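task queued by scheduler; priority normal; single chain, no ligands, no partner chains; default sampling; output format set to structure tokens
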Amino acid sequence: MSRTLEILNRLDCPLPLDAKILDFGCGEGTNVYQLHDLGYKNAVGFDVMNILNLRKPEDEAVFTIGYNSDGRLPYEDASIDFIFSQEVFEHVQDQIPVWKELRRILKPNAGAMHVFPAPYGIIEQHNYVPLGGVIPHYWWYWIWAKLGIRNEFQQGLSADKTARWNAFRYIENLNYVNNSCYKVIWEELGFDWRWAEQESFDTNASSKVRLAGKFNRVVPLLGWICRTFVTRRVFMRRLPGDAELATSGTELSPVERARMT
């Protein structure tokens, strides 16, 4: 989290120690604890599954598991100063309602940073299959399983069982939205946003990556490669005022919906 805070400083979005920070998709709670250790005592975490690794039982109050019964996040309108997520949105099947909720709970002009895999990753990060998120076919997964490609949960499985696992999990649990569609979603929902690869290059521990960042400032090709084939890092702010989808004026009629079923 220290690096994320450094990136935010470079983006002119420093966080005061009393900021209420939400780690959306907090997992075991590691980032929330790191923020607390850095003095951000109002950092909280949310996830849909409880895999928390609590330091002490009373820390459970810092975390919330699951949505409210109405499907809303359990936070008041405009109550959060900053939202962070890491490797979350590639698992969200119905994304627009989630983005709407994140906007709802952000304070006007408050920021957020989301990090998630690129849409055309050379190696899919969950099943380790080359182009496994681009070619989601059983036969493709079977070929690579036959060649010995398995993740840590698939060791000892046959090629058929491994391929079935990957095909099932892709449909159940993976959703790679492309960058141009995200552009539309974020702008329609009332976010000001920008890719933050340059700041990511500049704060990397590797001198070679920082050198690549200097090249990217002159010819911004590496940033495009990164967000297309490796990892996406987006910084956004909630624009003040109400947001409404521009497409709301093109609601399908019952007859048109029936024709599509």
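post-processing summary
- The CA atoms of residues 45 and 63 lie 5 Å apart.
- The chain is about 35% helix and 15% strand.
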